[in-house]
Amino acid sequence: MTTLDPRPESLPQRVAESIQRDKPFSEDERDRMKAVMNSLLLHIHASKVPARSLKFTYTFGLGGLSLLLIMMLIVTGIMLMFVYTPSPDSAYTDMLALQSTVAFGQLIRNLHHWSGNLLLVVVFLHMLRVFYTGAFRHPREFNWVIGVGLLLLVVMANFTGYLLPWDQLAYWAVTVGTSLLDYVPVVGEQISLLILGGPEVSGATLRNFYGLHLAIVPMMILMIVSVHIFRVRRDVGTVPRNLDEEPLKRLEKVTTLPHLVSREAVFAIVMIGLILLWSTWVNAPLEEAANPDHSPNPAKAAWYFMGLQELLLHFHPFFAAIVIPALALGGLMMLPYLRTDMDTEGVWFRSRMGRKLAWIGFFTGLIATPLLVLLDEYVVNLPDLLPSLPTIISNGWVPLAGILLLLILYAGMLKRVFHAASCEVRQSVFTLLLTGFIVLTIIGIAFRGEGMALMWPWEV
Amino acid sequence: MSEMKRRDFLKVVWGAAGLAVLGEAGWVGLQFFSPQVVDGEFGGVFKVGAVDDFPPGSVTPFNAGRFYLVRLEDGGFLALYRKCTHLGCAVPWNQAEGRFICPCHASEFEMDGQVRNPPAPRPLDRFVVTIADGQVSVDTGTTITRDHTSPDDVVYA
Question: Contact A176/B104, CB-based, under 8 Å?
């Protein structure tokens, strides 16, 4: 008797082959390439990659780590969904139950908390890596902009999650954070009213944040991440290049399976191990239940907003909360579109000169920022010096113009003294501002105590 | 005058219809998510007591209504919203210092809500105080923001 199916394989073999047609572990290169081509993996990786681009110290695996953290956040987040009710009456008791009665409740909450915070750090570092290796230039400009958008979404995810434990930390950090919106001209108060579901943080706010945190923000992140990765694939990854090395014409390539995928798997396993270890020993903070009648002293925003909160102590709120962040974000998104006078793709810190100027930017920011903070805190009081002007000018336009002027002088000086290219000078200014932002954040977190007065970290 | 082609006309009509759908969806969403006001909670009218219950020079907190009933030395009444005009913290009354001191960013306000120390950009917001038959009531339905304190803010029995 003849059968219609001429294949000689046995039934189990045919079942196995119907699931996985290719041979990802084959000795033959072409088999392994086909295994990528015919699978979902093709959406993330090409079948072959330049051998050089596997170098860990080029990307530090930051993009992949972001994806891993997103997956961990989805898993732990869904688990937490089952033991949490978003209402002022039960949210906090649910948190207490997580710590005491729910098996592994504390661990799962810790994992979610720390992964969320780490994700913010990692996407920020990912952005810095892309900037400092010149990997955002044509044709990748818009993917950089998408990345900045993703950074903002991750901030939103963190911020909306911050309220859910409904403790004092959550309540007042969100009060302070949403109050920033009141300074947006014309529509700010309406937006704030809509987000809070009323004039103050309340049960309605908790419901809103729950919906944003569990559905809207993660959905947007997943959709936009897909576009982000698609464009990375389309534009082809950049390849690391040594200092003074000409752009490479012919690249030695290796198959993605196993060279790239095995590295990713090992890195993922190591990172999961580290996060588990950390979450086993370090608990996510939980303070007393939220009390709308009593603001703690000091009432601090979430740590990633501490740079902003520090700015608020020095500038008129319209400038600290709106003008300066808008300038910073606008500048960040415009970066890849500025004309460049050097091809630095794949070179860490552009060039020898670039490295030197980046160090100068770093040290200038490191010294100038605390000096300016101390100057404003103890020596100069602009509104008193300029009593005839409204504070929005004396404490807004005047200091901002002063700082912009200093930056222009700084850039001009670098150009004159070092005869540096604009792209090296730009990197130095970026480094200066970045350092300033980080220093402000550290001052806000560690050097601000009762009444937001300056003090040493051990006194806080 | 050139006549509009059938094709162009339809493009305009379809485009307008699409915009109308977007607008309607936006409007429905906005209405759906807009805050609901509950009677008897913050946002309603509070009957706080008789005029004589509040000695001149006193500040009485009403947590449910989120306000302080201030009676100035001259006997005038003011209801101050306790939300700091800087970044929204609950500002406590400091009896020893005789002023409101915000724990978040160290803004200070006088008894009548006037800014004594920035970063607060404007005086504490206020609510309307009504005195009828010697009874004081405060309407927390509308917050009144002000750039400067004024004698008109104060209500006398």
Answer: yes
Q: What is the predicted ipTM?
A: 0.82
Task: Dig out the tokens for A275 from the structure.
Answer: 């996060």
Asked if pLDDT for residue A163 goes beyond 60, the answer is yes
Alpha carbon distances (Å) from A165 to A3, A154, A196, A405: 65, 18, 16, 44
Contact A21, A34 (CB under 8 A): no
Over the stretch A213-225, which tens digit does the pLDDT of each residue have? 999 999 999 999 9
Which residue in A179, A297, A392 is closest to B103 by CB distance?
A: A297
DSSP letter, residue B35:
P
Which of A196-205, A314-323, A394-403, B37-46 is predicted with the least confidence, judged by mean pLDDT? B37-46
Report the share of chain A in percent with pLDDT over 90.
64
Once rounded to an integer, what is the mean pLDDT over residues A359-383?
Answer: 92
**Residue B142: closest CA among chain A residues belongs to which residue?**
A199
- How high does pLDDT run on average in chain A? 91
What is the topology classification, in CATH, of domain A50-294? Cytochrome Bc1 Complex; Chain C (1.20.810)
Enter the pTM of the model. Answer: 0.90
Taking the C-alpha atoms of residue B134 and residue B94, their distance in angstroms, rounded to an integer, is 28
Q: At what angle do helices A203-211 and A141-163 cross, to 10 degrees?
A: 140
Lookup: tokens for B42: 């913050």
* Binary contact (B35, A194; C-beta < 8 A): yes
State yes or no: pLDDT of B4 exceeds 90. no
pLDDT for the residue numbered A3:
63
Q: Residue range A178-195: average pLDDT?
A: 85
Q: Where are the domains of chain B?
A: 1-34, 45-153
Inter-chain CB proximity A383 and B118 less than 8 Å: yes
Rg (alpha carbons) of chain A, rounded to whole number:
26
Homologous superfamily of B45-153 in CATH? Rieske [2Fe-2S] iron-sulphur domain (2.102.10.10)
Among A174, A179, A208, A393, the strongest candidate for a mutation testing the B interface, having the largest count of B CBs within 10 A, is: A179
Bridge partners (DSSP) listed for residue B71: B58, B77
d(CA A144, CA A122): 15
Q: Which residues of A touch B89 (CB under 8 A)?
A: 172, 175-176, 295, 299
Q: How far is A192 from chain B (nearest CA, A)?
A: 11
Q: Could you tell me the end-to-end alpha-carbon distance of chain A, in angstroms, rounded to an integer?
A: 88
Contacts 24+ apart (CB under 8 A), A439-444: A439/A365, A439/A366, A439/A369, A439/A370, A440/A306, A440/A307, A440/A310, A440/A311, A440/A369, A440/A373, A441/A303, A441/A304, A441/A306, A441/A307, A441/A310, A443/A310, A443/A369, A443/A370, A443/A373, A444/A300, A444/A306, A444/A307, A444/A309, A444/A310
